[in-house]
Design brief:
alpha+beta; 6-stranded antiparallel β-sheet; 585 residues
Length: 585
Amino acid sequence: MEFTQSGDVLAGRYQLTDLLSESREGRFWRAQDAVLGRPVAVHVLDARDERAPRLMAAARNSAAIGDPRMLRVLDAAQTDQVAYVVNEWGAGSSLENALAAGGPLPPQQAAWIASEVADLLALAHDQGHAHGRLNPEAVLLDDLGAVRVIGFGVDAALHGIDPDTRDSQRRDQVDVAGVLYAALTGKWAGETLSSMPPAPRDHGRVLRPRQVRAGVPRPLDDLCDRVLGSGADMAPLSAAELHSALAGFSGEPTAPVNRPAAADEETQAMAPPAKAEPAEAPAAASAVGVAPEVVRPQRQRPSTPPPMQDPTPSKPLFADETPGYTPPQRSAQRPQSAPRRPVAPDASYNGWQSSWTGANVPIADEPNYDRKPGTNWIRVAMGVALVVLVLVAGTIAWKIVNDTPSVPSAENPAADGDQGGDGDKPAKPTPIKGITAKDLDPHGDPPTETPDLVNLVVDGDPNGLAWRTSRYNDQIGPVSENPRSLKPGIGLVLNLRGEYSVDSLKFNMIGEPTDIEVYVGDSPWSDDPTGAPAAKGSVGTEGEIKLDKPADGNFVLVWMTGLPNVDGGYRAEVKEVQVLGTSLA
C-alpha cells in the first residue's frame, strides 16, 4: 500500500502523523488536515483489498445518521491505490483510559454514559445500521463533557465485519450493556474484543456487577445480568429499551445545553448542538422491565451529563429488592407515565418507585457478655511491666559487654577500636525516591504515548494501575532485526531529580516478555537514543536489569524495543519502575 509511513500525504491534503492501530494491512492514523489546519482521524486500506467497498459503504451510512454523538465523516474516497475515510478528531479521553486512570464511575454517571450510547444505537438501528465493534475504546468522553462514539461502522468494516446486519445490531445491544458493566466495575463483559480486564465468570456466566463491586444499585445490576449474565438466554432487549431503562435511572435533562452563539466548524463538530426544549415523552415507570413500544426522548442533542459525584442515598443501596420486585424483562403493558426527573437529583434516591431496605446491611458482631469487667487494664499493666523488664535486662547486658576490654588478635586486628571501620565501604544502592516520568514516542506526533497514565510507573504501587502503550499489529524494534517493525522503540524518561550513580532497575509489568535497553544521561531524551546502552535485557511480569557497571546521571531512559503479545497485537503495560542507586550530591 502506498500510504503506510508517517509523513506521507493522502489526497494532497491529509498528512499522516501517528499510527494508532492496524488490522490485516488496514491502518488507522492520526493525521493533519493541511487545508483547515486541524487534526483528523484517517482509516486507510489498500484499494485492492476486499474490504474496501464495505469501508466506503460504512462511511456513507455513518454520514447519513447525522447524530452529534458520533465523530463525523468529513471525507471518503477510493483511488487506484487506496480507499480512505476521514473522520473528525475527538479531543478527550476514551472510557477505557478514564477507567484505567480513575477506576469505576459512580452509578448515575455510568448509567448516563451507557444511556447516551444506547440512544445513538437505537437511532442507527432504526435506519438499519450498526456500529459493529463497540467497546470502551470506542466511547470518547470529550473535553466538553459529552459522549462521542468513535469509528461507527467504519471500524467494523476495517476488521472485516459487515455493520449492516442483524447480528451486528445484536452485538451492539450486548456491547452497550458491556459499556455499562465496564463503567460500573472496570471490567469488560461485551462480545467485541477490548484491552480492558475481562469480567469474572462463574461456570461461563458473567458475574453480576454487585458481585464485583459493592454498592451497585439493584436496577443497574439486574439490567446487566438480564443482558450479559443469567438472563442472556432470554429474548434480547433492543437498544431503545436499554436507553429507556437507563434514562429512567440517570434522569433526563430539563434545559438545553449551553453553547457559544457562534463557533467555527471544529467547535461545532465537538460541542453538543443547542436546540429548543424537547417535547415531553413518557418516562419509564422503573429502571427495568420497559415495554418495547415505549416512546424515546427526542434525539436532536445529547443530554447533559449528571454530576460526577453521586448523591448520598438516604438508605443503603446494597440491599435486597422489596417484595414483589422482578428482574428486567419485556412487559406486555405500556408503563405508566411519570414526570421526568432532573439530571441533577436531590440528595436521596427516594424518587424510585420502590423503597430500599436494609436487609443485607452487615450487622455488627455481638459483644461478649461473658467477659468479666475490669480485666482489660490488668492485661495492659502486665504488658507494660514485661516491656520494662526486658529493657532493663537489655541495658545491663549491653553495659557488661561494653565494659569488657578488647584484645587485639590476628583474627581481630582492629579490636582496639582505633583502627579499621566501615568508613571506606561504598554506599549500598537503594531505591531512589521522588522520581518523575514522561513518555517518549519520537516517531509519533505529538511524540507521546498515553501521557495521562505515565505517572503510574513511579507512583510507588507495584500492584496498582499500569501505564500502557498503544496496541500495534506488528512488533516494534530495530528495522535491521525486523523489517516490518513500526518504529525503533518506545520510551519512558525518568527524571531522578538529582545526580545519582545508577546500579539497577526493577520492573513490575503486565504481560511478558518486554525487551528493554537502559540509558543514563545528564539531560532528557527527545529522540531515539544513540550510542551503546548502559544495560539491556528482557523482563517478565517481574524482573530486574542490572547495569554492566554503575552509570552517573540525572536521567534514565527505559527504551522498549520489544512488546508482549496481547490479544489482537502487541502492547507493553508497566505497573512500576524502580531505580536503585546512590546519591552523588
